[in-house]
Structures
1.
Amino acid sequence: MDDNKQFWERFSRHYAGFMRRSQATYQQICKAMRPFLKRDMDVLELACGTGQLSVPLSPCVRSWEATDFSAEMIRQAKKQVYSSRLHFSVQDATKLPYGPESFDAVVISNALHVMPHPEKALAEAWRVLKPGGWLFAPTFVWGKSRSARLRLWFMGLSGFRVYHVWTAGELMAYLSERGYSIVRHPLLGNSLAPLCCLMARKIPDERTAARQTAVRSAQLDDPKVKKE
């Protein structure tokens, strides 16, 4: 997962301040997720940034493992005051070190659309989720409008790339095709930056299990993985 990594390393010092512009949206996300979080849950967060969700939500659960592929982003996250239930670490969302069925929930907020291969992260999330476990994937869904294209063009000027421009329906279809059962999908944010707060569950069946195994096998056969 080298794509966009240099951008995040450079931008990490300013990320928390920049995200204050989206504070109201993240408060909405927390409000939507909080009823589903229980004290006996172990949660894994992928692409946690500087802790916009992990810091306020980790007190609700037994443990919260917040991960990001940017070491500098994790360093900035650790500067905050946070719950003893929360642990930060540097991890690649497509090659996680955790065992199968280790977590009750996986959170991946506003990251799927900026990953070149989000299917790999979703396959890893499926692998580490317990049967019936929750996937929380709030994701900006700009769609294909002229204003969306203009916004993405300006983002590209900064060196930041968005790989997938989904509508809410397209995002739900993408996750459904990978075996996740959609439970809720409230639309949050505003008209300039709409966000689909997608909540889904891992409901295994033979076909889904075979698909996820195939994706995982392809990752292990990747020359980059073997080289490491």
2.
Amino acid sequence: MLFRSVKYMQDIESVDLTTLIVDLGTVQIYTSTVQDLIDNACIEFHIEDLLKAGQRQWKAVMQYVGMHLFPDTSVLKDKTLKPLGNATIPTNCNRYDREVLYKLCDYYIYISNVYSKLVSTVAFSYFCNIPTNTMDIWASDEPSSLTFKMWQKLQRSRKDCILDRAYDSNSPVGTMFVGNNEFGMNQPGIGDNATQRKAITAQELPRLDEKKSQELHAIDTQFTDATANNTV
């Protein structure tokens, strides 16, 4: 019998558990399958409330899901075969199906949001049971490629998660972090403090000029005296 806490049920009751995530031809991945695996992982790892679980436990759950969902990752490989160079035998070059992984990426981000977890390329790699350096490699692909867009989506989602967590902390520091990150509110030349600094600076300009003139005169006198004494 699958474990579900009351709070957990409240959070997923609006989710259609029969929705198809992706059709791999010989295998169809449904949301209900993923949810069942998450439930089993919570039992395996003695997690009573996944919403309260830390990032390390979340990654362990994603790894559990990926290992059972895709024990044979060949189902994630591109089915399109093309001749390579002068070769006559078509091949997929052991390439992953980008469109399939893109759909899985969208669903991974969704469940990460449901359980209030930070999005990460590592956890997504666990979810798909693919090498964790895959996303790092795709980060250097052409910006127009689907692989790069997938990496970019994960990075942007992660940043958004961090900003939300900072704001949800109910701390002025967290709020300022969000404001500074999005609008540069405490950066030089931006915000109310900058306006006040400019006003003060304008009022003090005559005094600053006078002080600077005095300092220059003193330096010139010292230089003249030093020259006369051959110390320069």
3.
Amino acid sequence: MWQGFGIVPWCCLAVAKHGWGMGRRNAFWFALPAVASLGLFLLYPFLDVLRFSTWDWSGLSEPRGVGLENYRDILRDPDFYNSLRITLVFGVMTLVPFVLLSVLLALALDGQPYERPIKALLFLPGLVTLGGAAVAWYTLFSPEYGALASLIPVPRWDQSPFWALVLIMLFTIWRHIGYGVLVVSARLKAIPKALLEAAAVDGATPAQSFRFITLPLLRPAITFLVVIGTVLTLQGYTAVFLLTRGGPFGGTEVLGYYLYKTGFEAGRLGYAAALTVIILLLTLAFALAQARLLREER
């Protein structure tokens, strides 16, 4: 009766309001463990790093407050700018082929009968432990006694900063290319086939269909890969530590390794904490700028 006239009884409104309040309270309690974990393991350590960055501290001595002096020293430190330059060069060298290969391989494998086995093989390096993978690469590519050196000439990457950076780039792409292909492939399969068929009926060539249909619809996946790749390259450390130790002649001393060397080899933990904050700000700035640029191109 009430529904026929479009009138809802006040008791129904009260029950609905009460149920909404109960739902919000239940959602809060369900989310509380996750929020508490984030606060405990992410927010609290970050606040501690901010506190450490205002200290002159070796980890063993009594900390002495120095305010923003560590940040001023970093901005005047030529080693920091050299490390930043190497990191940016490494990022460009790695990011461009990583994204291009991810897109090209995903396009080449799409719809093929061997698509799944090839994707599994590409993803396999990411499942190997990083230490084991680095040892395998060092054994394979060592210019002196590597297995590959007995078959073909291997550049002396242990004496050339450029070839050492190329080795780190190839290792990084090898470990992550499977993930990039999966991201692009998932987006590729979400593109309606009807759009491509309609374009073909209208006389569009495969190149035109890719340029005006496939590529614009792949842009969210490409944006994601660019942002993730930027974060990985700016914060990269492990591959450099295991393969080159920043050498030769400091040619692979990326920001992550410079942070490790300053904090744990030179014993300047307060300075390293300030460097951590700067690397975090640089990562956020680059990621946000790239995401905004790619969004504006749409």
4.
Amino acid sequence: MADNKMDHRNQGGRPPKVTSEKRTAEVKFHVTPDVKRRLQNEAIIAGTDLATYCRERYLRAIPRHIPPAILAAVAELARQGNNLNQLARIANTQKGMDGIVIRLIGLIEFYERLARHIKGYFYDSKDRNR
């Protein structure tokens, strides 16, 4: 009876990957020591190991690790969204835009700068018009 319970027990852990998803092939290439140092530094900044960084960079995948500066920019975007919502409420309750227009223009300029900053991180220079 005790053996029967052991057979149905969850083994836990991660399920094995399908054979087609396993990374078993290897690619090697030679670089100068300066290029290796640069790639290692870029990998550290991206928050990943060198192999993952090179693979994702080559395949043009979006890095999995988002730098704190980008996360801070997104948080600031959310805060400014709250400000925009408050301005809209004021405009609706007062039925006028006195004093709000200048603040709205400032928010729009902020959104444009922040959008360029965030896009600059995720897209190559040739793709920045997205």
